[in-house]
């Protein structure tokens, strides 16, 4: 092997190492940003459960407004948006090159990563738009009603909204079941975690994942109702979905439990930012 071939090999290895480091940094920044949003949404929902929301909505828009009121809020918003851009780019890299793990290159895994890339790309855009001054960009309930109204106005609109709602219900159940079964273990560097840390991560992963699944499924139920009744106002974003728990038989306590679960999911996201395999 001549010197030129050795040099090219070293250059390729260096590029791979740099790409891997960038991918890992983007993933961990994105997971941390997701954690910030879920913790804030959960805390806002807890305040609603106990009668003091401070005028904030318990959704992404409310979380962004909460950040904006803090010292260096504008800087924090831009950092949060940048982290979510990192999340979208990480998922894009998984769609293009495969995710970590033996089955990371399968078509189904890549397709799921592509869907997550689109979702987090939208979330990142909304956060950055909010940071740039579009303060109305984060209202989930209004967006849900607007999208539902447009969909219902299309040919076969009721079926479209109904199927989308059913998809959310299924997704919510899938998220909750996988959390309870601790399927996330395969993504974690368990060997680097102490027994105490693993117990703490399982508490946040199971409780947080179950609560997140419940919220997704409930939002799906409202979408199905909107389709059946042909009433876009029946559709709800995260804030409306969370507030609906307060009118359930257990009232504010049910909302408080779900809200606490969302806080746990935010903490779980921080744990994933530290110990996830990328």
Keywords:
278 residues, mainly alpha, globular
Describe this structure in words.
By secondary structure, the chain is mainly α. The protein has helices spanning 3-49, 60-68, 73-97, 107-131, 140-152, 157-180, 195-229, 238-245, 252-275. α1 (3-49) packs across α3, α6 runs antiparallel to α7 and α7 packs across α9. The protein starts with a helix and ends with a helix. The model is unreliable at 5-18 (pLDDT under 50).
Taking the sheet with the most strands, its summary is: none
User: How many beta-strand runs?
Assistant: 0
Helix content range of the residues, please? over 70%
- Rounded Rg: 20 Å
The chain-level structural class is: mainly alpha
What are the segments in which pLDDT stays under 50 over at least 5 consecutive residues?
Answer: 5-18
Please count the helical segments.
Answer: 9
Order of helices and strands: HHHHHHHHH
Distance between the termini: 33 Å
Write a concise synopsis of the structure shown.
With 278 residues, the protein is mainly α. 76% of the residues lie in helices and 0% in strands. Residues 5-18 have low confidence and may be disordered.
List the helices and strands and how they pair.
Elements: H1 3-49, H2 60-68, H3 73-97, H4 107-131, H5 140-152, H6 157-180, H7 195-229, H8 238-245, H9 252-275
Helix pairs in contact: 1-2, 1-3, 1-9, 3-4, 5-6, 6-7, 7-9, 8-9
